[in-house]
Amino acid sequence: MTFNSGVLITSFALSSVLAAGSIAIYYRSNAIIYQSERDKATDALQSANAKIDDMQVRQREVAALDAKYTRDLADAQATIDQLHDDVATGKRRLQLNVKRYRAKATGTSCVDDAASPRSDDTLERNYFTLRRRIEVAGKQIAGLQQYINEQCLK
Fold first, then answer.
1. Which InterPro entries match (predicted)?
2. Domain boundaries, the chain
3. Long-range own/partner contacts, residues 133-137 (CB < 8 A, 24 or more apart)
4. CA atoms within 13 A on the CB side of 124
5. Would you report the helix, strand and coil content of the chain in percent, each value rounded to 5?
6. d(CA 66, CA 69)
7. How is 10-22 classified by DSSP, letter by letter?
8. Which whole number is the average pLDDT over 115-135?
9. Does residue 92 contact residue 83 with C-beta atoms inside 8 Å?
10. Which of the listed residues 72, 91, 125, 149 has the most CB atoms within 10 Å of its CB?
């Protein structure tokens, strides 16, 4: 009986050690898998946070750029409006180099041909409209060029 009980105890102890070892190996491999997944998730989170920080910095830079060119455009518009008001009140004269083309008349010249061309209201209005549009287009182009250079080409 001692022989059977010793073999039985030894086989029980050996199977307990094997069971404990296999359980330990199972949980160790699970821990390694979970640790790997955690590291991947941490890396993804850090990457996402870095992208968010970069986007926030870019948004602030774009907002500052927009504010700068909006202010410049408002200043240019104010200058044009002041010039328009000065011309309208007579403080300044608007002098344009205007060439008016007329069909050649075969008859005698009339009194209207003898007058020098002068600016009329339509011409002044068109001049200021064109000037405003040129300022707007110039500021938009400059702003877009700076945006491309500072944001898109990074």
1. I-spanin
2. 1-40, 49-154
3. 135/73, 135/76, 135/77, 135/80, 136/73
4. 17
5. 80, 0, 20
6. 5
7. HHHHHHHHHHHHH
8. 79
9. yes
10. 72
